[in-house]
Each structure stands twice: as C-alpha cells, then as structure tokens.
Amino acid sequence: MSLFTHRAYWRWSAGVQFARLPATMAPLAFTLLTTATTGSYRLGGVLMSVYVVAEMAGAVPVGRLLDRVGVTRGLPALLLLTAAGFAVLAFAASANAPTAVLLALVLLPGATAGALSGGFRTLLADTVDDALLPRAISVDAMLLEGVLIGGPALVALLDLAGPFVPLAAMAAACVGAAVLVPRRAAEREREETGPDVPPAGVGTYLPWLCCAFTVGLLLSTIEVAPLPLVQRLGAPDTAAPVVIAVLSGASIVGSALYAWRGKTGDPRLFLGGFIVGGLALAGDFGWPGLIASVAVIGGCTGPLVAATSVNLQRLLPKNRRSAGFSLSFTVQACGFGLGSLAVGVLPLWLAPVFGVFAAAIAGAMLVAKPAGAIGTTSVTS
What we know:
By secondary structure, the protein is mainly α. It has helices at residues 7-38, 41-69, 71-94, 99-105, 107-113, 116-127, 133-158, 165-180, 185-193, 202-223, 226-231, 240-261, 267-283, 286-315, 321-345, 351-367, 371-374.
C-alpha cells in the first residue's frame, strides 16, 4: 500500500500533530498569560522551565505505565489528563492564583505530556508495516516542521481574543489528539505484547541514544544562536531569520528525499554530514560557509532521526517501546538544552564543536556494527 493513500497513517499523523501542538505553543502562551495576569514575562519563562523539567522527569515512568496498560487505552487517558491540566492552569491564572500555585499546577500537564510522543511513536509500529516505516517517519518529520512554525503563530493569533484562549486551544488540541488515537491497533497490541520482556543492556541502545542526543545538541547551536551567527559576519539583526529558514527548508528537503528514496539508510553517512557541517559552522567561512553548513546539518537531520527511530524499534521489546521511545525523545531534549547552554557560556566558534564531538562518538559506536544491524530496507511507493 502507498503511504499517501494509507488512511490509518494519516489518522495517526493528525493525532500526533495535535498532540505536539501544545508543546510548541507553550513558551509563548505561558509568557503572554503571565504578562497579562501578573505583569511579569519572567514568570512565563519559569513556568516553561518547570513544565520541561516535569516532562523529562515523567517521560520514562509514564511511558512504562503506558506499556503496562496498553498504549491504545492509556494514551487517550493521558491526553485528557494533559488537557485538564492546561484548563486548570488557565482557570487558576484567571483567578489570580499565587505564583506557587501556578508553578505547582503546571507540573500536571508537564508530567503527563512527557510520554505522549513515545506513545504515539509506539502506535506507529502497529499502524504501518516495517517496509513503509522509514518513509512514514520522514513524512512525519516534514509535518513536524510545520507544527514548530505554526504553534507560536497560532498563539499570537489567539491572544488577540484574550490571554487565556491559547491555553484553552492547547487543551482542545489534546482532546482532539485523544479522539484520533488509532483504535484498530488495539487487538493487535493485545495479541503481540505478550509477557513482560526485559530490555537488552544499555550498551545495545547507547549508539542510537547518542544519535538522538547529537541531533538535539547540534540543532540547538543553530536554532538558539541565529543572531550571533549573523552578527559575527557583520550582518544586521534582520538577517537572523535567514539562518532558521535555511535550516528548516533543508530539513524538509532532506526528509522529502529520504522519504522518496524509501530506505532506512546508513546513519553513519548522516553523522558524517553533521561532522562536516558542524566544523564548517565553527570555522567562520563567511556567508557561503554559514549557509552551506546550516543546509548540510538541516538536510541530514530528518534522515538521521528516521534511521535512529527505525533501528531503535528493531531493538526495543514490544512491551517496552513507549518507555524506550520516551527515553530517546528525552535524551534528544537534553542535548538541545545542553547545546543552548553551550551557546550561552562558550565562545561562538566553540559551541558547534561539542555537536561534532557527539556525532563522532556516535559514528564510532556504529562503526563496529555489521551492516545488517543497521539495515537498508527498501519500500515501494
């Protein structure tokens, strides 16, 4: 079956985009909310920090809970809890609740949201067959770029109707995602999960977790630092969006080519692209070097994410996939956070070197793997 006529996949895709939307809306939504209610935009930043910490802390344990109860049953409940958390937070802010109460209330949607991506990724394994999986993940990566751009824009639009409307929309998006959770996989999930199989040793997954970490680490170097990158070249501040546009555009093109090719591919090739792009970014070779390095890194991002995800699925026991994928997304988020910190405290030329170093370590871990362990499964359109 062609992916583009695969109705179950597009239902899954709609659900996962709705589930992702609140996370992309949250930074601006929290800032606008607290500015309107308390006059402090800084409180919005603190709320976002607490939300992210709760996400990371809850990702694996909540993902493990999803594995135990069954993703098709547990994921809708988790989405509804997240929606309730956003709604209660909005109500408390409208009632001028103390700062401590707001900080406590943001823990609920944060803790429950941490495992949503892992749960949906687990469902994808039961939605499309293995042959279509690389293409499905690549198309999803392209759609994710749209969600990342559309989330903040939607907040800015909804804020015109009031500072509480964006949070209401975040809650509604979670409810919509719960409705769209694929149901047809439920019976298959019950049949295939079987007894509790412990995961393999950490060394088995470490190369792929390192790949996920590398993606977050090097991407954050670009996404957090477009302004200093163009200032280093003597360009005006208004040129900064060009860097993000090139990164997003190259990511979409890379994912599209990967989906068109329809093979898992060798992640070492994409890690090599990260190394070359990161070194060029650190080297300060003027505008040509900046654009070329950002384009190479962006073009390799989607394929590396897809190859990492496919190989993780091959290794994870069926009854541990939600926890495993949640851990992978958490590791990637940690990389993003550390990359952002590196931009803030290190010389600009040095920040990309850490991403290059991480890519080299991940590549070295994969060098010893036989070709069959990485795979090049092909598909037909």
